[in-house]
Structures are given as C-alpha cells and as structure tokens.
C-alpha cells in the first residue's frame, strides 16, 4: 500500500524536513541542516519499516509484552516505614506547604503568570 508524500517532502518520502525540525524543537535539540537531512532520511526509513509491519496479518499472533519470555516475579506487598514529610522535602529546591513546587509547563487559567505561579491569594511561604 503506497501513501503519497507529505506536502514539501521529496517524492516517496513519509516525513518532511520541517517536521524533523519541529520534533527537534520539541525535544530541545539544535540540529544543523546536514543533521536535519540525515534524520529526515533515517526517520523516513523507520516509518517505511513500520508501514511494512502494519501491512502484516497478525490476527493469529498472540499478543505479548516482551519479544522473549520474561519471568517477572513479584515481591510480597508489605507495609514498611517511609520517609516523613520533612525528610521527603528536605532537598527540594522549592516547596509550597507539603508539596514540591515545580515550574508550570502546561498553560492554565493564569497562563500569563510566571512559571512558578501560585493560585490568587496564596501565600508565598517558602520564597528563597
């Protein structure tokens, strides 16, 4: 089964250099033009192989979680002492009450507020 090339991609290609650049940006990678060209070819080959696999009839193949038999013994569930709240947060670079404070990475209601935004009216207890 043959699919057309994405707009802007060489004929027969499954991925465009612009898509490779976008993936690199999302992955926080800086790529030279030569690296983009090489990765475009590599990813196109991988996508071609995946397309070949997708074309196979696997109806009679039993699903599996690993390519080889894998015995994964489980330990018994036991209640054990755990860290106290203070021990768990002792090395946290920033905390807010009993929580680790981390930079916001997903825009929320206060998207225009800085990366360590707190809800309106919340106290700044542990400011450095």
Query: How many helical stretches?
Result: 3
The H-and-E topology, N to C, reads as HHHEE
Helix/strand class: mainly alpha
Mean pLDDT: 81
| Largest β sheet strand count, sense and barrel closure | 2 strands, antiparallel
Give the percentage of residues in beta strands. Answer: under 5%
Q: What level of helicity do the residues show?
A: 25-40%
Q: Roughly how many Å is the radius of gyration?
A: 25 Å
Quaternary structure state of the chains depicted? single chain
Strand order of the largest sheet: 1-2
Number of strands: 2
Written overview of the protein:
By secondary structure, the chain is mainly alpha-helical. Helix content is 29%, strand content 3%. It is built from three helices and two strands, in the order H-H-H-E-E. A two-stranded antiparallel sheet has the order 1-2. A hairpin with a 2-residue loop joins strand 1 and strand 2 (99-100). The N and C termini lie far apart (60 Å). The mean pLDDT is 81.
Produce a short descriptive summary.
With 128 residues, the chain is mostly helical. Helix content is 29%, strand content 3%.
Describe this protein with a few key phrases.
128 residues, two-stranded antiparallel sheet, 2 strands, flat, mainly alpha
